[in-house]
Design a protein that fits this description.
six-stranded antiparallel β-sheet, globular, 267 residues, Double-stranded beta-helix, alpha+beta
């Protein structure tokens, strides 16, 4: 176990499908998105609400959900006795613990937030000068901002690579592979050059990341996993099965539609 705050301790167990276990003493608590719990001891009490993780009202909770988080969050608190709360990873990958505080904030991809000590703030990455970078990077690959105080845990899917960018050094990344970015990193949405590349190559959008700072990249994401599985879904209409091409069209239309609806709400 690693001491985190006061008497609170945390450990990440496992390899391919890791589990975060947090030991709480009476009076201590952690928060997570609603529905992402694995298991907990009898001494732990649950309270689901909107006004946690930096949201002080329903409007701010709505902005959080627009950025890819959940409208409701759950607080897991040890009241009369100590207890353990466990949060399993949802995909094979890595759980990364990050410290929060002055000068320590991050951008993470939606689905990345796992849990945090109370005092952490999770919001949509809304920057008026970088609206597209936060919301339409890769049609549905949404970025969230993680800041505040204490510690937080972020789930990254697949294999993990770290890049320490020197001042002025840049890297172009498919948005799906962005896992975690330090606040010192400059980011902007760019397009793939060349019409043939756009239509038949690696997609339309890229994220250009410029140092100084650290970037954590993931080899998999829920969106890429779903897209990779589409060709293996039933491809005939016999017996009521839907053609895979129809499913793919629905998936693409759904992500584009979600992006357009999200931008409409902001504007």
């Amino acid at each position: 176990m690693q001491p985190i705050h006061g008497g609170m301790e945390a450990v990440i167990r496992g390899t391919t499908m890791p589990v975060l276990e947090v030991d709480l003493l009476p009076g201590e608590s952690v928060v997570a998105e609603a529905g992402h719990i694995g298991w907990f001891d009898d001494g732990i009490e649950l309270q689901t609400m909107t006004d946690v993780a930096g949201a002080d009202n329903v409007f701010e909770a709505g902005l959080r959900s627009l950025g890819g988080g959940t409208f409701f969050m759950t607080r897991y608190a040890a009241t009369t006795q100590a207890g353990t709360v466990a949060f399993p990873a949802r995909l094979p990958g890595t759980i990364v613990q990050v410290p929060l505080g002055p000068g320590r904030s991050y951008l993470i991809q939606r689905h990345g937030f796992l849990a945090a000590i109370e005092g952490a703030e999770l919001t949509a990455a809304v920057d008026p000068g970088k609206l597209g970078s936060g919301f339409v990077g890769g049609f549905g690959f949404v970025l969230q901002k993680l800041e505040g105080a204490g510690h937080a845990w972020v789930e990254l899917a697949g294999e993990l690579t770290r890049h320490d960018l020197a001042p002025g050094q840049s890297i172009s990344v498919h948005p799906a592979h962005i896992g975690l970015i330090e606040q010192s990193i400059e980011y902007e949405l760019t397009t793939v050059p060349g019409i043939m590349n756009k239509l038949f190559g690696d997609g339309v959008f890229l994220m250009r990341l410029t140092g100084p700072g650290r970037v954590w990249l993931q080899s998999m994401s829920l969106e890429l996993l779903a897209h990779s599985l589409l060709p293996f879904l039933p491809s005939t209409t016999d017996g009521g099965k839907v053609q895979s091409s129809t499913l793919e069209a629905a998936a693409i239309g759904g992500t584009i539609g979600a992006t357009v609806r999200g931008l409409g709400k902001l504007l």
